[in-house]
Amino acid sequence: MTTTLPAARLVTGFSWTECPRWHDGRFYFTDLYSARVVTVAADGTTETVVDLSDREAADGQRIVASGTGFLPDGRLLINSMFERIVLVHDGTTTTVYADLRDVAASPINDMVVDAAGRVYITQLGFNLFIGESPKESPIVVIEPDGTARTADEAGPLMGANGIAISADGTTLVTAETYISRITAFDVDADGKLSGRRTFAEVGPDSYPDGLCLDEDGAVWTGLTAKGRVVRVLDGGEITHEVTPPAPEAGIATACGLGGPDRQTLYLCCGFEVMDFDKSVREGQGSIWTAEAPVSAGTTRP
User: Given this structure, which CATH class describes domain 3-291?
Assistant: First the structure.
């Protein structure tokens, strides 16, 4: 039996909210098309941490701030989606951390950083926003020394999206959006991926997007085509769901566990993902919260 959890709106007024993160007592997310990283306090007070809107983009691409993560020294990494460049913010300045144009064939998407500072980045495999057809692509890895490679040992994925690592660092999960599947891998001491397996099928044409893990090993993921977020166990059983009201929230696409006990589920919701300027102009993107039954513990992100 699936338990339905109520959701409450925390804050609104953004373009398309994505990539929720809890770090060092603060909740972060990306305001995609406004090209910034924002924090939100429990009372809804917001602060722009990084504003990339004035950045001179490589190859004339639009700046879209996508996945984020934190290095062991606390610096913030930000995926510049269409540039295929990872930026790093040290609290004062923002510079290039890794140029992925030689290894990423398509817009880069989400990321997770392991305890050693190794970065796993998903890419769509195609440019959805200009009408290209879905195709497979590998995860991109940035090693702690800054070198980038594709995780060819893991094989290609069909629209890899949200990505997370278990508390012990031995399991990585990601959403294969275009086949509605959560896929898991073993992670060895050198960061190589193996043992590819299906964690869960989440229903045909559900399109899982952003995700996170809890300390019991369950995955929370936003089912973009269904407008809700679900908690799914290894094997596919859905135990909990959260469905923010569509007239106020639009659709829920990504989620993350945070709060002092990491048991507050943050949901990223929005109305307009394809028309970037309209999304910014209307500012209907929002963050909602629900109380989860299990903490994230020390899972990543």
Answer: mainly beta
